[in-house]
Amino acid sequence: MRYLPKSPAERQEMLAAIGAKSIDELFSSIPERFRLREALKIPGPYSEAEIIQYFKDRAAENSNGYTSFLGAGVYNHLRSVVTDTIILRGEFLTSYTPYQAEISQGTLQAIFEFQTLMSQLTGQEVANASMYDGSTAMTEAVLMAERLTGRQRVLVARSVHPEYRDVLKTYAKNSGLLVEEIPFAANGTVDQQKLKGALKDDVAAVVVQSPNFFGVIEPYAPLAESAHASGAMFVVAITEAVSLGLLRPPSEADIVAMEGQSFGLAPSYGGPFAGVIASRDKFVRQMPGRLAGQTTDSQGRRGFVLTLATREQHIRREKATSNICTNQALCALAATVHLTLLGKEGLREMAEQNLSKAHFAISELLKVPGVRRTFDAPFFNEFTIELPRSVKIVNSQLSREKIIGPFALGTPYPELTKHALVCVTETTPRAEIERFAGALKRALEQPV
Amino acid sequence: MNEKIKKVSRHINQNEGLIFEKSSPGKRAFELPPLDVPAADPTKALGANHRREGVEGFPEVSEIEVIRHFTRLSTWNHAIDLGMYPLGSCTMKYNPRVNEFVARLEGIATEHPYQPQELSQGCLKILRLLEKCLLEITGMDAITLQPAAGAQGEMTGLLLIRAYLQKQGNPRKKVLIPDSAHGTNPATAVIAGYEVENIKSESHGQIDVEKLREQVTRDVAALMLTNPSTLGIFEQRIAEIAEILHAKGALLYMDGANMNALTGVTRPGDLGVDVMHLNLHKTFSTPHGGGGPGAGPVAMKKILEPFRPVPILVEKESGRLALEPVRPDSIGKVKAFSGNFGVLVRALAYILAYGPGVRQATEDAVLNANYIRKQLAGVYELPYSLPSMHEVVFSDAIQKKNGVNTMDIAKRLIDYGFHPYTTAFPLIVAGAMMIEPTESESKEECDQFIDAMKSIAEEAAANPELVKTAPHTTRVRRLDEVGAARKPVLRWKPASPRSEAAG
Amino acid sequence: MAYPKNYRYTKEHEWIDVKGDLATIGITDHAQHELGDVVFVELPKPGAKIEAGKSFGTVESVKAVSEIYAPAAGEVLEANGELHNTPEKINSDPHGAAWLIKVRLSNPAAVSNLMDAAAYEAYIAEKGKETSA
Amino acid sequence: MESTTISHTSELRKTALNALHRGLGAKMVNFGGWDMPVEYPSSGGLIAEHKAVRASVGVFDVSHMGDIRIRSGAKLGGALAAVQYISMNDASKLAIGQAHYSAMLYPEGTFVDDVIVHRLGEDDFLLVINAGTREKDINWVRENTKGFDCVVEELSDAYTQLAIQGPRAVEVLRKLTDADLSSIKNYWFTHGTVCGLKNTLIARTGYTGEDGFEIYVPSDVATSERVWKQVMEAGREFGIIPCGLGARNTLRLESKMALYGHEISDKINVWEAGLERYCKMEKGDFIGRAALERAKAAGLSRTLVGLEMIERGIARDEYCCCNEADEKIGVVTSGSPSPTLGKNIALAYVPPAYSAVGTVLYVEIRGQKCKAQVVPTPFYKRVRKAAAPSVS
Description:
The complex is a heterotetramer. Chain C is of the alpha+beta class.
């Protein structure tokens, strides 16, 4: 087998050296009756060519040739080939968590740079080395707020990504956390009156997303004010990180939980991505996940180590701040390389193109008879429109024209079955936007 | 080496700064295609109070600088591609490159989790086939591919157990965890809402079954067992252990971290295990990537099937596949979207490459571990005499006499071109040296490792100081972890009289 | 390092120095030795109640966290803020400058059940044998 | 333990056996101010002498070595206190009749000289020192033991010191003494009658890496020559031959035994020399201790490694070591062909980064870069019999 570097003779030699007659002897500690007699019933062995063919065949059964207007937490952005060139280097790809600092300085310095970039982006003082994804990052942020405040009630805006809220509920169930949802106002932002009403001195955190799930940008200041007024932490979730190239960062937030997928990571049918938690220095010892810190070696040279490890499960065991061991180092590295390539200007320009295309798109779509804008509030690259009929039906018609229609809000928000979340990024050509508008017009003209 | 010297020579003494220190306004490494729609005015579109003028401190460099910066950093890492990486319990095996290739294919990497399922049949078929393979390998009845990593798999597994017991009226209080277990287990148990009760290993490092009998009460929800244990020893009475638990209505959870010792040889399902997680980044060769991403599928027996996290992959009568978002008894969602798909793709590519022949990989892994054990026994102390599976645990007892401990020896290994083994774990072995070669090491590589370990043992006796101050060949020497923890510097800040963060 | 005669000691390696119903509490030289370089200390706020045998804070080294257990019950009057910036004091002067908290004891008499210096030294000597065995 | 520092006294010193050596046609050299035999062509020369010691037995005249006796004065314990203060090993661990390897250090933690310390009695020690450093050593000892209640006397000229070395040395000596040699462990000694000479010091020590004895007999020519001849006589059946300093040097080199002025000197500290196991920091204060503490904290800048030449050429003292990049990284301290291994070997100081066994580096031999490789040391290890356990 091509992955195994031993000849039959060498195996015999090694067995002899061990003093075993057969390989089975090495498995003697497994009770005879439990040892598999026949071979596993799994396909293979396949040559490299066959493996590639298998996956190409599967790829052909997916959405090739379609233009998509989906966002809703996973975004299609330009990615430079440089990013893959770097993360495919064996020294990054095939190394372990940098516990042995002396021979992991590459990974450690890259993480330190990632932490710096994330702090700068989010307007926070410190960011960790990444989490599984945005949904778990937001959940961990809430648990962090619980530890810091010693309170157990959490208020989550209903305009936060539905799947993020679901994950939070799963974790909350057994940690005695009480999750309550705050409705959204007519303009799609958090209903501030309802929020004030729900806020008492037992609330650990107020969680909002911006731009929120409807693409609407939340006003941080008043929300932060009400949260802090009752001693709760203000937690901001961000699913479209590119927006930070143009949007003022949530510097009012105590904790920011962000999905980094927009930074050089392919949609990849939902993962792997890279979550981020950023916060204030004074909270760092309650922050989950790994942290790279700068220090010096015995000769006074600058070097980096994983630090404050005592928060982690492998030391604290049952007292750990989280049970997460892996971060998403390679995804974080991809994001680091990607952002380094973009740089200050590139990120700003990318954000501006998203803004421009989205605003062009909404103007085109609103020309279509029967299409109305749902929320009258500023947005970045996603917006919600109302159609005269169920979005699902419209989408099935659109797909005949090789268009993957916008996200149908009806499933997570029953009251919004006729409302669609449209996403347009710098990757969507003007012609496709116009084709979409045309197709939508035709779809709506057809009798139901 | 003097930080001022910016000349770049051989990588071990190369002095590459932080990317921020190379930044200079006006440099670019990326250009976008021209905008083909009217430019929107940000201030008008967003409102002045939402507007931001670029990200302060963001680097401005050219493409070649980016390439060089990260390429130089990469040379400071050890990696499987460079040589043996014998970290115990981490299963640092070869990461096949075809896995990377297929994960990046157009139509695989490009797919959106919300696209219509009739346009996602390819993705769903991949998930389906992987499920089938993993079920066959583990001997279980049902599986979820959702969890993002081993630790989340553990949590998912315990939530399944909790939901199952809850359904029967009582979630129970305690989870039993052997003292040899990995630290994640207790951390997970607590997050799943359970108290942790440690159980002591008997003198051979196996679970003390007699004591277990007493400890398993109606309060016990489950036992979390790592098999083979972190000592690399197979839990011989596991079937009996399962019976004891089942008799009291408790379940057996198996940490599959060490599945590389069992794949194709025996099946946890047949051993009486009720639920287990797999680390695809260990046993199934997906790259560790410096610490993630991973994936931690959870395989289970029928009784737990109804509680699986959503979405659930189902086969419609038409033969078409679908992800179902709701299930009445589901524990809910553990992660947004549908698992770490990209990682799952790589794992399937690995399984297909071997097919049933994966047993050979397991045999070679165990062969390597036992070969190293044989050659180093006597040179280093073997705290437990039971036969080793895929990894072997020595202790530094002999070298301690010269004041040389496991960490010193580990660091000296670096000078010999190897990554250190796992130190100071498992906790029940003082000065543990936990070595897992995996099947990816040739006899030659194993022999070189053995020679290095022998040579270090000699040095430990003849010239302890040399070992205690290792490594000597790396770009940086032992780093001041105490200083790093006392006054954390966790991000770069522009050098200023006040801020020393830039070092 | 000598163990002050006037202190009392616990099996969990805390010391307590009682004056009337006021007491100062810290960790022993043995404890700081076991722990290694201390990097962080977590202490209760004034006004907090502590219970005998219950954890009231933590001391962290690079690779270990240990709970600090109250030798006796009482109310916290003051926590040693110094230690936040100079945790290393716990390594250099555990029995003096690196005291952790000052408390008003609810039952000063109970302290007499704890080990005196001699008993404590015997106790750690005994432990030493176990571990080396 | 010998020195090659050339003495400037016009008149070379001679041992009591000088005439005898010349009679045997030995090739004589000025060795540290002494007129000493380097090899005996008549007995086959250096290689034959070397092999005789490894395979059977040979005898060396090492009377040029110095001997310093330190005894307590009125107050008991004075001698021990003094020895503890001037030497780095822990003499309090010595039983009467036991000896150990040690060294006298400068306050900088570098070497005044290395010594073998014998404990003759509770308050009575004998330090055997190098020939070339005799004056320096004795003055150093006198200087630094002033504060102690002890008497220091130099006995160097009182003894003729013969080293009978090799696996069969015990059989040779057994024929000449009443002492129970089998009861003398390695690095222990006793007093017994040798060649009729009562109360002769018999030590199971040596400088060859083989089993063997060193005996100390009165240094008058008559007695010395008589004992020498009787030893040769007793050894004949084992093929004993006289051995010179040449063989002595190759023998100690194969066994990685330090030579003053080469592996150790006033420029090299204990950690660098890799002699940590003979330096007992925990025993209390001694000259050089503080500096060694600091040196430990500072970390190693160089360490002593064994080299084996891959390309032809013999690495000699003072030759440079360099890496591929041609950077000078270290220096050879001793080098020679190894008669036992049939290879060219050397000891050298290099940065720890080049110390791993298998590391390839280059020795500059007369402008020529010759490839060498770091190998495990000692180059030669004798198979010990249970009777003679290791010192360390």
